[in-house]
Amino acid sequence: MSTLPPCPKCNSEFTYEDGAQLICPECAHEWSASAGAEAAGEGDKVIKDAVGNVLQDGDTVTVIKDLKVKGSSLVVKVGTKVKSIRLVDGDHDIDCKIDGIGAMKLKSEFVKKV
């Protein structure tokens, strides 16, 4: 019996090792062999701000760079405080409402936890 962990995406038991990577032949998912235990809990993804603080739902953050709002002439200015953020999956990993602008998605690399 194999001592390799099952695939974190499809739970296939047929994973194999290719150098430092583990590969699933059924769904073609690849992950690091050293992070195999952490990859199994992929839903527990840690999202950090620009300076490395761990973000959680409900946190208050400050924008660290002027951000242009796509499709509009509005700009989110440096120092804008955003309350009650929600963490989501995807490229823009913060869902929030900004006073005067409305609902937005932000990247965690452009915010700092207060």
TrEMBL record:
Protein YjdM C-terminal domain residues: 47-114
Domain Protein YjdM N-terminal: 3-32
Coiled coil: none
Family: Belongs to the YjdM family.
Stated name of the protein: Protein YjdM
Organism annotation: Pseudomonas cavernae
